[in-house]
Amino acid sequence: MNNQIVLTKENAPHVATVINIQSPEWGAKKFNYKAEPLLDNEFADTVGVGCNSKVLFESEYKFWMVASFKN
Asked: If phi over 0 gives left and psi between -120 and 50 gives alpha, with beta otherwise, what is residue 50?
């Protein structure tokens, strides 16, 4: 894990999976860029799938590292 790439606003559109930096034992989670519609044509990112997903705010990116990028 020496080559950790932290999730950022710039790389977020290209990320497929992420790992929580403080709890890597959770494993890689699917990262869904702009997956959840909000008001006024805004979108939120999510981590996980289905009922096990959660909204990920840009201010929380620093707590996640990139596990893989989209092909």
From this structure: left
